[in-house]
Design brief:
With 947 residues, chain A is an alpha/beta fold. Chain A has 29 helices and 36 strands. Chain A is globular and about 90 Å long. With 86 residues, chain B is mainly alpha-helical. The chains are: A alpha/beta (947), B mainly alpha (86). Bound molecules: iron/sulfur cluster (SF4) (3 copies) and FE2/S2 (inorganic) cluster. Chain A: GO terms for molecular function: 2 iron, 2 sulfur cluster binding; 4 iron, 4 sulfur cluster binding; formate dehydrogenase (NAD+) activity; metal ion binding; molybdopterin cofactor binding; NADH dehydrogenase activity.
Chain lengths: 947, 86
């Protein structure tokens, strides 16, 4: 293994389709029109010296190191800013150029400290490389000039340092922050030798608008912006390409290593989802893997109030199996089940559903996607024929109108948000439909054309009103509908949406969105060119979540915005493998590839492969499992990588369910909140410690590669295999996850072309990947819908039963923040807490004043089911009547207040609408106090732990 | 399982199919419940319907009446303390 060095072509590729041939140092080279001379030279294998250019940024032409001579042209133009021309003859190395370049380097070096031996970038410094490349042998201005070593370092950011002494003012960082990340946090202050890089209003990085994405660090050619981990550890010696385990963007990273220690995670330019960009989580927040609170030994206990006892793997697995078999003997086959996680790999997820179906003998397997995107599955399958987003991320480059509904991409999907912002800066239009003024509504160089600040719970009404405008104003793409959709369903739908009660004027009263805004947005969506809808959990997590997804699909079909780049319906998936965990058959009614358990032909495939008879009845979904537990018919649960107690709604009900179970098995990295109620704890492995695949929001299957041995001794898939073996499940003799993928491919029609060999060869593929599409499918439904003709569905608005009233007059909605991830089990154990160390309640100044609440005060947040306390943040980002918080911290336990209302079709909880009251408070709620005590009691580990 | 919650869930499904006209709605509701509810949930709602079906909207009650009997074994209740405190 060695360090992967990606080629830097100096300037970005040209997208032109016409090509130009030129000659560089006697070599003929053909490149797309618009390519720079520098990049063309690189294509010919010739590296022109450069400092201010790098291929993630537009050429800038400031350092004058990349000069070339061109026949018939005067002077020595910069090759980075000079486009190629047909027949051009370029020399990159002449006596004149050598002299000029040395002169440039002499100037740089005379103003640069020469502490190379002790510099963190030693061995990875472009300034050093260039000094070598131009043959710098002396510095006529002397070495004693300015060394700037007394310039103050900025070490405020927990992950990278800024040492202005090393800066050559190439402005690559400034441009990376603008062009790649779109945050505009950096500027060059001053002129000439006095010029320097400044963050924000000349503030420390941490206090500026910087979001710590790391793009500037990566772009910096010197040691000026440098990862603190490199300063601490030294330069890496090998690297492995893997996939971020946080969000559904699925960024590819090079894990740069020294032995088994991660030195840094560097976004991989060849990653098809991220193209070399990253966010603060994937780039920097991986330290949880070695956090001291990580549990590395299996543990058991009789009662949940007992301290944990460390035991051998054999004893822990033995306990799981004997308890599960006992429970089944006493209470029936259906009394146990399993929950897979969207954080785990496809292979691990597939194995758990196999264990449940083949080993437990029932279909009681569900995934945490239940509580996020299950409505997407149902809604898109009903309308289009399959449960997945229609586009790849690159599609956004062809988009003219973006609709963002119930999503907050700059926080939830930051790397894709940067792509969206780039396209918006290029002129695409933006419509935001969200109760809250998310950052994208207005940020540097991005402004939404329309923001529809609807009341939480009225998505379906607003989406149907958009359809009303499209139908009644004659904006339907008639040809598309005629050729591609079911005519009768369309006719019924068009008549329904055209009814007066669905007009913007009628819906304005329900949603609080002025009719003209709805009309304007509908017109723009229908007539503004390629229009794409991007949506998140603000759409799905409602009692009408599935209906809203269908309403979105209806809009896309009615306007013909489906089946080509730039358009489509794009669910932004929360966790890294939400798409994959759904694809892999971890729903209680479906096998991998979304085939119902009652389908005899599908069952026959698995029965033959697994050698067992399989249950044809659907199993329990997560909320049903908890209800059945409270009711006494569900007693045992195996949970991999999921914290149900913190993440599921109505915590008190969840806790009641867990307390009623007899054997709860938690497999996780840490003693999470659910482990408070567990009888067996199986220590899990982090994404750095295992092989597998994740499938991101664009259906892209990316490899996860092991960079260090599992610290707990076993990769997660090995733990499931051990349980399966002990239960006597046949066909579980895998020696590598690639064999699990082979089984997935053999049994799942949309995956038949997927193998580790293919993924290693091409990087990643998007399913369907099979005989019909051997290299995968970036855009779905191109020639026809998966179900044949697209099906319009009538989307009657049914108000949620969660209503405000005199006791609970405000509506609470929730979301997440950039630096934290879901229940925070990982990110809270990293320096990311510097940005968000507690959940805050956003409340409008008007509502705050009425209640005597000031910014920063402790407040009590109470709903019909429970109460918690947290600090208030007074802001007009939320509308009057609406409050908002995040759910990253177990101390807050936001879900103590959320209710059991759920989506009619999928039981996905209605997290986004809870009627609440907010009052000043001076201490934790009773629940918080009791829970803390219980938590302390239930997380004790016996001191005399056995080996 | 608590009939109240199942009745609520079934009626919620009913509201989605309501506009399709009675025959289609009844079939749609029955199909949805058969596809997504596990046997013990179906058995519970069927028992509730058999004893009058209090609270079930009319098409939903009809749909429950035409549900096929759950195949396989229905898990037994036992123990379990329904409680909302710690
Ligand atoms: S880390 Fe990212 S946001 Fe911060 S200054 Fe650098 S490029 Fe800008
Ligand atoms: S900090 Fe680095 S990238 Fe930015 S101007 Fe200085 S040397 Fe260039
Ligand atoms: S959290 Fe998401 S956007 Fe950030 S690096 Fe990981 S995959 Fe990329
Ligand atoms: S690399 Fe071309 S001017 Fe700096």
């Amino acid at each position: 293994m060695s360090l992967i060095h990606e080629t830097d072509h100096g300037t970005p590729p040209s997208k032109a389709t016409t090509s130009v041939t030129l000659r560089v140092d006697g070599i003929d080279v053909t490149v797309p029109e618009g390519t720079s001379v520098m990049r063309a030279a690189m294509d010919a294998g010739i590296k022109v010296p450069k400092l201010c250019a790098t291929d993630s940024l537009a050429a800038f032409g400031s350092c004058r190191l990349c000069l070339v001579e061109i026949e018939g042209r005067a002077g020595t133009p910069a090759s980075c800013t000079t486009p190629v021309a047909p027949g051009m003859v370029v020399s990159t190395q002449t006596e004149r150029l050598k002299k000029l370049r040395r002169g440039v380097m002499e100037l740089y070096i005379s103003d640069h400290p020469l502490d190379c031996l002790t510099c963190a970038a030693n061995g990875d410094c472009e300034l050093q490389d260039m000094a070598g490349a131009v043959g710098l042998r002396e510095v006529r201005y002397g070495y004693v000039g300015e060394n700037h070593l007394d310039a103050a370092k900025d070490e405020s950011n927990p992950y990278f340092a800024f040492d202005p002494a090393k800066c050559i003012v190439c402005s690559r960082c400034v441009r990376a922050c603008e062009e790649v990340q779109g945050t505009f946090a950096l500027t060059i202050d001053g002129r000439g030798f006095e010029s320097k890089v400044a963050a924000g209003m000349d503030q420390p990085f941490l206090d500026s608008e910087c979001v710590s994405c790391g793009a500037c660090v990566q772009a910096c050619p010197t040691a000026t912006l440098m990862e603190k981990s490199v300063i601490d550890i030294g330069q890496p010696e090998h690297s492995v390409v893997t996939t971020c385990a946080y969000c559904g963007v699925g960024c590819s990273f090079k894990a740069e290593m020294r032995g088994t220690e991660v030195v840094r995670m560097v976004p991989y330019k060849d990653g098809h989802a991220n193209h070399g960009h990253s966010c603060v989580k994937g780039r920097f927040a991986w330290g949880y893997a070695t956090h001291r609170e990580r549990i590395l030994k299996p543990m058991v206990r009789e009662k949940i109030s007992d301290p944990w006892r460390e035991v051998s793997w054999a004893e822990a697995i033995g306990r799981v199996v004997s308890e599960f078999r006992r429970i089944q003997a006493q209470h029936g086959r259906g009394a146990i089940g399993g929950i897979t996680s969207s954080r785990c790999t496809n292979e691990e997820t597939f194995l758990i559903q196999k264990l449940v179906r083949a080993g437990f003998g029932n279909n009681n397997v569900d995934t945490c996607a239940r509580v996020c995107h299950s409505p997407t599955g149902y809604g898109l399958k009903t309308t289009f024929g399959t449960s997945a987003g229609t586009q790849d991320f690159d599609s956004v480059e062809h988009c003219d109108v973006m609709v963002v509904i119930g999503a907050n991409p700059t926080d939830g999907h930051p790397v894709f948000a940067s792509r969206m912002k780039k396209r918006l800066r290029e002129g695409a239009k933006l419509i935001v439909i969200d109760p809250r003024r998310i950052d994208m509504v207005r940020m540097p160089h991005v402004q939404a054309s329309h923001h529809l600040p609807l009341r939480p719970g009225t998505n379906v009404a607003v989406l149907t009103a958009l359809a009303h405008v499209i139908v009644t104003e004659g904006l339907v793409d008639e040809a598309f509908v005629r050729e591609r959709c079911e005519p009768d369903d369309f006719a019924a739908w068009a008549a329904f949406v055209a009814e007066e009660r669905n007009s913007p004027e009628a819906v304005a009263k329900i949603s609080g969105v002025p009719a003209e805004l709805i009309r304007g947005a509908a017109r723009l969506y229908a007539t503004g060119g390629n229009a794409a809808i991007y949506y998140g959990l603000g759409v799905t997590e409602h009692s009408q979540g599935t209906t809203a997804v269908m309403a979105i699909a209806n809009l896309a079909m009615a306007t013909g915005n489906i089946g080509r780049p730039g358009v489509g319906v794009n669910p932004l998936r929360g966790q890294n493998n939400v798409q994959g965990s759904c694809d892999m058959g971890s729903f209680p009614h479906e096998y991998s590839g979304y085939r119902h358990v009652s389908d005899d032909a599908t069952r026959a495939v698995f029965e033959t492969m697994w050698g067992v008879t399989l249950d044809h009845e659907p199993g329990l979904r997560i909320p049903n499992m908890l209800d059945a537990a409270v009711d006494g018919s569900f007693k045992g649960l195996y949970i991999q990588g999921e914290d149900i107690v913190q993440s599921d709604p109505d915590t008190q009900h969840v806790v009641a369910g867990f307390k009623a179970m007899e054997c709860v098995v938690v497999q996780d990295l840490f003693l999470n909140e659910t482990a408070n109620f567990a009888h067996v704890f199986l220590p899990g492995s982090s994404f750095l410690e295992k092989d597998g695949t994740f499938t991101n929001a664009e259906r892209r299957i990316n490899r996860v590669r092991k960079v260090m041995p599992p610290r707990n001794g076993l990769a997660d898939w090995e733990i499931t295999v051990a349980i399966a073996h002990a239960m006597g499940v046949a066909g579980m003799d895998y020696t590598h996850p690639s064999q699990i993928m082979d089984e997935i491919a053999r049994t799942t029609p949309t995956f038949t072309g997927v193998s580790y060999d293919k993924l290693d060869a091409v990087g990643s593929v998007q399913w369907p990947c099979n005989e019909a599409a051997p290299q995968g499918t970036p855009v779905m439904h191109a020639g026809g819908f998966v179900r044949g003709r697209g099906r319009f569905i009538i989307t009657e608005y049914v108000p949620t039963d969660e209503r405000t009233g005199p006791r609970f007059p405000l509506l609470l909605t929730s979301g997440r923040i950039l630096s934290q991830y879901n229940v925070g089990a990982q990110t809270r154990r990293t320096a990311n807490v510097m940005w968000h160390d507690q959940d805050l309640l956003e409340i409008h100044p008007h509502d705050a004043e009425q209640r005597g609440v000031r910014d920063g005060d402790w407040v009590r947040l109470a709903s019909r089911v429970g109460a918690t306390t947290l600090r208030a943040k007074v802001t007009d980002r939320v509308a009057p009547g609406v409050v908002y918080t995040t759910f990253h911290h177990p101390l807050t336990q936001t879900n103590v207040v959320t209710t059991q209302y759920s989506d009619w079709a999928t039981d996905c909880p209605e997290y986004k609408v809870t009627a609440v009251q907010v009052t000043p408070s001076n201490g934790p709620s009773d629940w918080q106090r009791e829970y803390r005590e219980l938590s302390v009691q239930n997380t004790r580990i016996a001191a005399d732990a056995a080996e | 399982m608590s009939p109240d919650k199942l009745v609520y869930m079934a009626n919620q499904i009913g509201k989605f199919f309501a506009h399709q006209g009675e025959a289609k709605a009844v079939a749609g509701i029955a199909d949805h419940i058969a596809k997504f509810w596990d046997p013990r949930m179906r058995a519970a709602i069927q028992a509730h319907a058999a004893s009058g079906g209090a609270g079930l909207d009319p098409p939903v009650l009809q749909a429950v009446m035409i549900l096929p009997t759950a195949g396989g074994e229905v898990p037994r209740r036992g123990g379990g303390e329904p409680t909302r405190s710690l």
